[in-house]
Design goal:
Layout lengths: L2 H14 L15 E8 L2 E8 L6 E5 L9 H10 L2 H4 L3 E5 L8 H18 L6 E6 L1 H12 L6 E5 L5 H13 L3 H10 L15 H23 L7 H6 L13 E6 L7 H13 L6 E6 L9 H20 L9
Parallel strand pairs: 3-4, 3-5, 5-6, 6-7, 7-8
Antiparallel strand pairs: 1-2, 2-4
Helix pairs in contact: 1-8, 4-5, 6-8
Length: 326
Amino acid sequence: MNKTILGIALTLLVMLSGMPLIVEPAVAAVPYQQITGNLGGADYLIRIPSNWQGDLVVMCRGYSATPVDITTLEFYANSFSFITNLGFAFAATTYGENGFCVQKGMIRTHQLTEWVIENYDVTDKVLLFGISMGGDIALQLGTKYPDLYDGVFELAGVKDAKACYIDGLEALSTTSDDALIAHINAHSGSVPPCPMIFGNDIPIALMGFRGFSFAAVTDIKLECGGTPQQKPKAYERVSPISSALDIKIPTITVHGTKDSLVPYTQSLAYLAAVTQAGHSDLYRLYGVPNGEHVDVSSAMSMAIYFSFVNLIAWVEYGVPAPVSTP
């Protein structure tokens, strides 16, 4: 494989790493109106279902090393179409930037939320829904604007940017495939790492994982303006674990226990921080045994769907979500 082809392959792998790869539960399809536009230099997509009654879900997209457009947002909306099928309006923004763009993602998502509320008939609850890097954004927006958002639902979200940076450097420091596999296993990840799966071609999958690690480390450092040693406060600002004590609204995390890209231990650490802050009554962590990074397994899909339904019951009717995975 020449360098050009390798570069294209790794770029595609990194782009796909933040994309949803779930199998949607069977929910009757509902017609919807789709609106697209640009706000603050970022493209946005809105879907309003025919059975809409005023609730809104604002989605925070995952990490991408390459530019994101409306097509990507449509992919997300289609992958999680149970949201509109259940009668919720759906809105998402590209952020107008790629890479590890947590701060820009927070600004553009908050801006889009207020714009939709001002221009459409949002009369009920507003929920945040984040995936991977978007989980980071959703958690932070939930703690920053508890009067605007009513609940947070996130999948395999980054909780600690410093840990992601260090994990990426460790992966890149491995000098053989066996050493990289040992690194992934030490973090309870899956081999081959999802979504970099090409049948049984483990070396190609590991090459993709190295490409992802390189891009992620580079982009995290760029977002924070330096290394964790150089800019510790900047890493705290883009890490939900640093604001866990401020959680004020119902929040649910779904995370596969074999996630190679964002280790499940990050969610365990976040749960510990929320508990220590005395807010465990507002947080639920649902670990999906052997689940990978938002993979295609039915167990992951069912956990996502029923967890979302539980959040609705929690927010709409005051019925706390079960402590154990639904």
